[in-house]
Amino acid sequence: MASKNPLLPTKDQCFALTDEQCRKIQDVLDPDGTRAQKSWELQYQPELIRLYMTGMSFPQIESTMTPRLTWSYKTYSNRFKDWCFPLNPTQRDNKIIQLYALVSESSPANPIAAPPPIQSRGVPPIRPRQPQPRQPLPPLPQTSTSFDQEFHQTYEQRPQNERNRSATIEFDRNSISTIETIATHSTWASSSAASIFSHPDYASHRDSIGTANSSVVSLESQYSYRQPKIEQPLPPLPQPKPIKPPRHDPHNGLWNGILRVIPCGQDHSSLDAFDSFERCSVCGFTQWHALMVHARSMERENFANAMGMLSNFKKDDFAGNSPVHFLMVAGVEMDYFARLVRQNDNTNQKIFGTNQNVFGQNPLHVLNPRGFGEDLIPFLEWFKPRRAPPGLLLTQRDIYGRTPLHALLQHPLPRNLYPKILEVFPFFEHQLRSLDIAGQSTIQMMNNASLRLRSESESDYLKIQDGIIDIEQLLAESVEGDLPKYGFNDIARGARGESWFGFFECRICNRTNAHSNSYVDQMKCACAHGRDRNAPDETGLTPAHAIVTKERSNANRAHETATQTEELFRILIPQADVTLREALHVLDPEGNTLVHNIATRGFDKLLKYVLELETPGRRVSMVNACTKGADGNEKSVYEAVVEKLRELNERIRINRYTEDRRIKEFLVDNGNRLQRCKHLLVQAGAVGNPSITVCSQVPRLCLGGTLPVLICWTEALADLWVTRQNSWYPQQCVPSYPLRKLPGMVCGMDSSFTNAFLFLCQEVQKRASERRFI
Known about the structure:
It comes from Hyaloscypha bicolor E. By secondary structure, the chain is mainly α.
């Protein structure tokens, strides 16, 4: 049970405050009289101050004042904020103690007066009684006393009936220790479950000074006969939760439900780091990764020694997860990360990597904070300067549009850590209001996470629910408001701002005629004012996806050309800014990648620009990403483009009977652009039916660009075998790489790569057959 501050006044003491004392409280908080709304509901202000001093929540104040006033609890919260009253629960308790000490006749900190001496009775004494010294009163509990000591002292001093009755009283929910204890003891769990959705600062049971010192015996009781009591044994203290072994979902590709890896179909959770086993050929799991995920069950020294023994193993898996990804998901203490850094000081940046994996997760996305405690705050602050600009790792989004703050808030956290955590994250209010590609808000993500944990731990469920209440109150008191800001998403959908009678008022810079209402000028203004370039809107579309998928018109109502679309995209994601590469990997609400949407619409120049933005290793996974189509079958980007070409070929065949020249020119132009997109995909390493490893693998070594050249040659040989029947089919299909150098590229390579080359050669006939429909 959490310790209560005995200095807090009781409700009776607060209701006994006079109107003059309430006005004195206002003068103490606002000595200059400059507070806002000072004349608001003037006759009810003393009563409102009494309710505030009792510790009531604002919804309770609303219900108490409802017969006389009809304001909402948010209005009362704003008024007390205007009157300089603190709203934070901890600050509020401290201020209540201070104010009551100033306006009351005697300070709550004063010692309790000694009881009056016993009056002599009329019966003459048989023997004169010797005077006995008074026993000293026990001192008031100090705030510096630890929770465990204060818990035992308070519990042992209270009678048994009070202990039993305390199970039904209302607890101080401002302390996370109370929440953990409520969930641990079944007696308290039922009584606190109803307060899950209460306001975060609702009233708690407050003992007066006399109640806190109820164990002080009076002088009269010293001479009375005391019936001996049989002390009942204390209830067992809450035990720490047992360490759960790591969980690997080989079919969905998840470690502990957080870290995404390539689905391999083999459960690696039982593999031990000290048992020799081969690296997984699908996901790339090694003994080093086994050491990281099992680190929580190892001593620190053994963990450090094991790292020295396994230092020669591959550090990254095939999905681009660094060792710190696996250690983050293990839920270890901060000292384990320090030992990992010290063990690899010479390659700190590589071992303690800060890159995103192929699923867009950087190490903070998969952080399990269970073992950190108060060290979580300095640990998060350590990541701020690790990438330029500072704080980038704290704001990056994964492929589902979620930031590390979204992921961290889905874990059960001590309630006192929420304000400290939010202070670490840059633009935390904007992140809390941001949605993911499914249109879910932060509150919805947290609520779903708490419901998943409820069957395992009621205390974890309550912790997340308490965090939801605190965040809702924070957003309600925010000055930014609930309305989203006008930005890239609106411009990409074709919005042109507000114009009337030749005047244009920009909704971004709020200036009139500062620039035109064109999409280009609006995009440049949004960039200059720091609008989020990768935030999904309420439909789940990011600005990059909206620019590609949404149609826009020019001032003459003509459709926007492919060149104009490319110009808008270059403004949104410039080539020089490598920190915006995360926007290239976020999915749309249907699960399609940005490369898929660009290639299937024939934006060949834009596709070339996007592929050049990423590193060669990442391009292979980008062009081989698979998505489910309307028929429920997964298709790669290459297959989707080929299907578009089939549909276009059918339309050309039908158009031969209509002889509409404009339609024919339009279809021929689309066919040419789709063909160029297809060849760009092949040059980047796209295959028709990629395996799961090719779809998600991030190659660290591209063999000097040999693999794209081999794939390009396979595609070229297939094109040479096709009988061209249409004049618009591209003729420049022969690659510039000399054919005589091709056998030499295979010589000297390992057997796995040679087998891969032979497999590509076998695909020539298959690909040639796919082209004969044109």
